[in-house]
Specification:
Low-confidence stretches: 1-5
Oligomer: single chain
Number of domains: 2
Number of strands: 6
Strand content: 15-25%
């Protein structure tokens, strides 16, 4: 009690800040680091003798502002450095058509590295016959969207994107 009265709530805010940092290091998901920023603000307010209600307000305001303004930026930059997923690496790979791909009939299967996948043509109206080689253009759920040409033209890409 004596320490709290003598030094305000500095010790309390140091503990809150350290706990937020430790929790973030354990989770690595950008969920508690924002409270560490708020804890630092509250610690500074406590050090200059601000009332406890102002320390709480400073903690909340800085935590929420840092969450609102820096989380999208941090997620964008952290995610841009991650590698491709296993599925993303499939894009551009050659596959062997094992069942004729016809979007109208909802049929089509391809073989990729010994594994059979359900497939559909990336271009509407395109029919890819059994035995042909095709290339993975994108993945929709558990279906591979394929085309007979490796590099698609911009108008085809726009059509695929629904533009």
């Amino acid at each position: 009690m004596y320490i709290v009265l003598e030094y305000g709530y500095v010790g309390f805010w140091v503990i809150v800040t350290v706990l937020a940092i430790v929790a973030e290091l354990i989770s690595v998901s950008l969920t508690t680091i924002w409270f560490a920023f708020g804890g630092v603000m509250a610690l500074l307010l406590s050090a200059v003798g601000a009332p406890f209600w102002l320390q709480i307000a400073g903690f909340l305001v800085i935590s929420l502002l840092s969450l609102y303004f820096t989380r999208p930026w941090a997620i964008k930059h952290l995610n841009s450095k991650r590698g491709k997923s296993n599925l993303e690496e499939l894009i551009g790979s050659a596959v062997q058509v094992t069942e004729t791909i016809d979007n109208r009939r909802q049929t089509g299967k391809v073989l990729h590295k010994g594994m059979e996948w359900t497939a559909r043509a990336a271009r509407d109206g395109e029919v890819i016959e059994e035995g042909e080689e095709a290339y993975i253009v994108r993945i929709e759920g558990v279906k591979l969207m394929v085309s007979t040409t490796r590099a698609m033209q911009p108008q085809d890409q726009a059509q695929m994107m629904g533009e």
